[in-house]
Amino acid sequence: MLFLPLLVWYISLVLGIAQSSSYKSAIKQRQAPDEPQQLPGEQRLNDADQAWLDNIKAEVDLFPHAVEGDDTLTVDPLQGPPFRRMEGVFPQTLISGECTAEQESIIKRAWDDAKLFTEAQNGKWKKDYDYDKTHKFWLGDDWNATTHPEAGVRERAVIVNRKIKLVGRLFKEAHLHHNQWFLWRCNNARRLNWECSDVRNAGTWAEQSERTQNIMEMTTFCESFFKLETIGGQVAQHKDDADKLAKIGYFEQSTAKTLLHEVWHYNILGWPPIADLAYGMYNCRKLAIVNGTKRAFINSDSYTFDAINIYLDNLIDYHDDDPKDSDYHPESNSDSDVDMN
Ligand SMILES: *[C@@H]1O[C@H](CO)[C@@H](O)[C@H](O)[C@H]1NC(C)=O
Ligand SMILES: *[C@@H]1O[C@H](CO)[C@@H](O)[C@H](O)[C@H]1NC(C)=O
Predict the structure, then answer these.
(1) Under 8 Å CB-to-CB from 130, ≥6 apart: which residues?
(2) Closest to 40 measured CA to CA, from 277, 234, 222, 221
(3) Separation CA 151–CA 33 (nearest Å)
(4) For 54-58, 237-241, 288-292, which range has the lowest pLDDT when averaged over its residues?
(5) Distance (Å) from CA 286 to ligand 2 centroid
(6) In this structure, which residue's CA is closest to atom 10 in ligand 2?
(7) Nearest ligand, CA 296
(8) Residue 161 CA: which ligand 1 atom is closest?
(9) Which domains does the chain have, with CATH numbers?
(10) Entry pTM
(11) Which residues does 46 contact at the CB level (< 8 Å), separation at least 6?
């Protein structure tokens, strides 16, 4: 789940494909590929939202600044308990005082696993792996049509290639601008109009201070996130069952999957913003087949499942690496757009 609010004018809510209208990113637009526009909806602020925004604005402008008397803690611009530094993840990541040590270690583990996914997606492991085939499966046939005669097709392919590299680099060796911050919360989003629920694993927003230009990319991890299995746990669980191991549908949900899904929404990966046009393997596959790269190139789960697919293909020595629709176990073929992430 992604929200990309702009401090200045409005909060834009991305609600899958339910809303469509014009969209402004906090990040300056580069040359536009054609038709990426069925993206985030725009929601005018009502008076209560506006008042809330005005209220936090002063603190956002100051962020990040230390809590008086303790410079290891940072004030929460949204009135929560102070944040502390989180080590071993992206630089300039702060975690809310609302998160327990156990929750922090679950997030850290998810980050480590998500890093492995992005390494696999960036070709770190098996050199002879057929990346083209898996990328086509999740991101559509035109994912690498960088020399296509049509500008829009070509541009989208350039964007897919660039984004995959960028997400890999972000995990590997992020050199962040001093204005770039990641804020991670647990259970409480401290936002109007959004709270954790049984069907929500996480939500992500970005805000930029007009005055300091600090960009805060904020992710809330919900209670249901902390109950998810780890990818390692799933692999271990299925290790004696070749049939399950070979079906990626058994690896649709994990802590690392949710974390990586949220990271794909971060503004730091550049324009265009990655939205939620389809959730879940079944719907992403449908997106790749029916709508192709034209839509899949801006869909978070499409990139995420692509990475997980490559990771598993590299990890498990399948006889047959070709992704197939029969790789989904039927239970995962939910057609509903449940907002799981
Ligand atoms: C993508 O296309 C370029 C040439 O346009 C090619 O060199 C490269 O191998 C392709 N990548 C994959 C993974 O097929
Ligand atoms: C994908 O294409 C189908 C059929 O044209 C259309 O109904 C659907 O809205 C498209 N999905 C997206 C996310 O654009």
Answers:
(1) 321, 322
(2) 277
(3) 8
(4) 54-58
(5) 9
(6) 291
(7) 2
(8) 1
(9) 78-337 (3.40.390.10)
(10) 0.85
(11) none
